[in-house]
Amino acid sequence: MDFNMKKLASDAGIFFTRAVQFTEEKFGQAEKTELDAHFENLLARADSTKNWTEKILRQTEVLLQPNPSARVEEFLYEKLDRKVPSRVTNGELLAQYMAEAASELGPTTPYGKTLTKVAEAEKRLGAAERDFIHTASINFLTPLRNFLEGDWKTISKERRLLQNRRLDLDACKARLKKAKAAEAKATTVPDFQETRPRNYILSASASALWNDEVDKSEQELRVAQTEFDRQAEVTRLLLEGISSTHVNHLRCLHEFVESQTTYYAQCYRHMLDLQKQLGRFPGTFVGTTEPASPPLSSTSPTTTAATMPVEPSVTGLAPPGETALCLEEVAPPASGTRKARVLYDYEAADSSELALLADELITVYSLPGMDPDWLIGERGNKKGRVPVTYLELLS
């Protein structure tokens, strides 16, 4: 107990001395040991790395999980060292709703069949998103988080220790300066106004006491300087390790870009397949006279996602490799034509399609081998492909 009380008193004294030195420095009443320019640059670079790593980490978490409540839940599970429960992605949830809607509204109707096809595509998109989130979390978020929770905590601890060593060093310098000033005053300005021998004795004793105080302060200064230099070297080595951290984060950033590229390439392919299943062939945008881009290449995910090509527009109904069929030359069948009312406005994607206006009546018919989701529509002397889902067949 006695030893503990002495240690407690010693720690309290050190804390008080540091607090006094820190306060006097803030008010400009005490000198402060300045670090060299290289060391200051290392500190600034380390602080900048920490601050930007935090911002990038937080915003990447928002990108991967936009729901703040879900992020808080995942954070709590992580702090409790418990496995985060599997969560359905938004695409998978949309696919589930669409599939249930198709089942209830009629899976054989045009709307129900389209819902089923879109649900399958959304499910694949949701699975691709899940893989992307998992890969990005492991290859990008985890290294950034490990730096903030591991290396940066070590650097911060050593920096605080260096700050304490500097305060101790400057306090020793201030104490030595005061002791030398008092010694000089006691030696050079004795009290000659008094003739009593007692004053001469006291003056000599004071000089001896201040001489001992100077020796003690110089010894403490040497110890404090040694400890400060040792701690400065340890901290400098840790700060120089930030360069290795940048290299590691650069590698992780490349992996994040690769995973994001693969994810968007998968999404593009899934949506392209969906367009083909729905009979909406992707080509140039409506109103654009520029030629279509080259067809999609499946050799490299990186190239695929970077260029995002669009397949050439399909004109007519002829299969690949055959001469395109001109709709103006197609005669309607002798029987099988029907009247249909247009449910919604439809803007033709290319010259092979017929633009529609809601509530108008057109004549429709089908051709052998034609996609069941499409019909040939006629309005006066104009004809073209029209989607079944936009029509209500009357007779």
| Topology pattern, helix = H, strand = E | HHHHHHHHEEEEE
Tell me, rounded to a whole number, the average pLDDT. 78
Taking the alpha carbons of the first and last residues, their distance comes to: 103 Å
Number of strands: 5
Shape: rod-shaped
Gyration radius over CA: 40 Å
What percentage of residues falls in helices of 4 or more residues?
A: 55-70%
Largest sheet: 5 strands, antiparallel
Catalogue the unreliable spans.
281-324
Helices, by number, come to 8
Largest beta sheet: strand ordering: 4-3-2-1-5
Percent strand? 5-15%
Helix/sheet category: alpha+beta
Topology:
Elements: H1 2-26, H2 37-64, H3 68-79, H4 90-105, H5 110-188, H6 197-240, H7 242-278, H8 301-307, E1 338-342, E2 361-365, E3 374-379, E4 382-387, E5 391-393
Antiparallel strand pairs: 1-2, 1-5, 2-3, 3-4
Helix pairs in contact: 1-5, 2-5, 4-5, 5-6, 5-7, 7-8
How would you describe this protein?
This protein has 395 residues and is of the alpha+beta class. It has eight helices and five strands, in the order ααααααααβββββ. Helices cover 63% and strands 6% of the residues. A five-stranded antiparallel beta sheet has the order 4-3-2-1-5, with no helix packed on it. Strand 2 and strand 3 (374-379) form a beta hairpin. The longest helix has 79 residues, at 110-188.
List keywords for this structure.
5-stranded antiparallel β-sheet, alpha+beta, 5 strands, 6% strand, 395 residues
In short:
This protein has 395 residues and is of the alpha+beta class. 63% of the residues lie in helices and 6% in strands.
